[in-house]
Amino acid sequence: MAFQVIVYISNILGFYTYVLIARVLMSWVPDVERTSFGRILFKLTEPYLGIFRRFIPPLPLGGGYLDLSPIVGIFAWSFVQSGVVLVLQWLFL
């Protein structure tokens, strides 16, 4: 039973990783953010990614900017996911 709960929580956290990646890919196509799917992804990811945007400024590249905060956010999320799973395994297995 405990193993199933750990797998379930790990899958939920892993799904959010894919949501973050979809948000990054979506930012490359300007009009996708105006769709209902784009608004949902924005509402799901902006509270988390906004934390990193406060500390990591975008890098100027020619006529545009490169936002590195989603990359740092995805790496941080993977550490959080691994840590949560390890703590749950330690507690329940």
What does this structure look like?
The protein is mostly helical. The chain has one domain. The protein is 72% helix and 6% strand. The protein contains three helices and two strands. The chain has helices at residues 2-26, 36-53, 69-92; strands spanning 59-61, 64-66. It has a two-stranded antiparallel sheet. β1 and β2 form a beta hairpin. The chain is elongated.
Poorly predicted ranges:
none
Rounded to the nearest angstrom, the radius of gyration is 16 Å
Estimated share of beta-strand residues: 5-15%
Helix-strand pattern? HHEEH
Briefly note the structural class of the backbone.
mainly alpha
Q: For the residues shown, what is the average pLDDT?
A: 93
Q: DSSP helix count?
A: 3
Largest sheet entry: 2 strands, antiparallel
By DSSP, the count of extended strands is: 2
The helicity comes to over 70%
Strand order of the largest sheet: 1-2
SSE diagram, text form:
Elements: H1 2-26, H2 36-53, E1 59-61, E2 64-66, H3 69-92
Antiparallel strand pairs: 1-2
Relevant terms:
3 helices; single chain; two-stranded antiparallel ribbon; 2 strands; transmembrane helix; elongated
Structure in a nutshell:
It comes from Tumebacillus avium. This protein has 93 residues and is mainly α.
